[in-house]
Inverse folding.
């Protein structure tokens, strides 16, 4: 399975954006990239090796945003019961996949749900 250059560029932008958030670190549990803040995952980035379809999984608490994310081609509530908690997996290779800017907005929302108030204040000040 080859990854489209467009999808890969989006993925790289989203990853860079996520890791630029205050206190964000990248870790590789289960062999996939995740961005964490305060030891908690705020975005699952998956792998970019073509082993799985490229996508990002974010936690969206705002009902409208959550509903919007689920209307993206191929988007679905995340597996392992995470969907019930507001996590949405958004594939990047589907025709009509969201733009990197929108994905970054969702990553920021996910970060705000999970990050401690002190780091959110830092984000808002920045």
């Amino acid at each position: 399975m080859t990854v489209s250059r467009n999808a890969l560029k989006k993925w790289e932008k989203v990853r860079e954006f996520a890791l630029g958030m205050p206190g964000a670190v990248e870790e590789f549990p289960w062999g996939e990239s995740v961005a964490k803040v305060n030891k908690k995952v705020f975005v699952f980035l998956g792998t970019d090796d073509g082993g799985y379809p490229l996508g990002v999984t974010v936690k969206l608490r705002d009902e409208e945003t959550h509903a919007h994310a689920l209307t993206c081609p191929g988007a679905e509530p995340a597996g392992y019961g995470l969907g019930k908690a507001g996590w949405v997996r958004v594939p990047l290779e589907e025709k009509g996949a969201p733009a990197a800017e929108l994905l970054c907005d969702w990553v920021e929302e996910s970060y705000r749900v999970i990050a401690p108030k002190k780091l959110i204040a830092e984000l808002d000040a920045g």
User: Anything to note?
Assistant: The helical segments are 5-19, 63-70, 100-114, 117-125. The first strand starts at residue 24 and ends at 27. The radius of gyration is 14 Å. The chain has four helices and six strands.
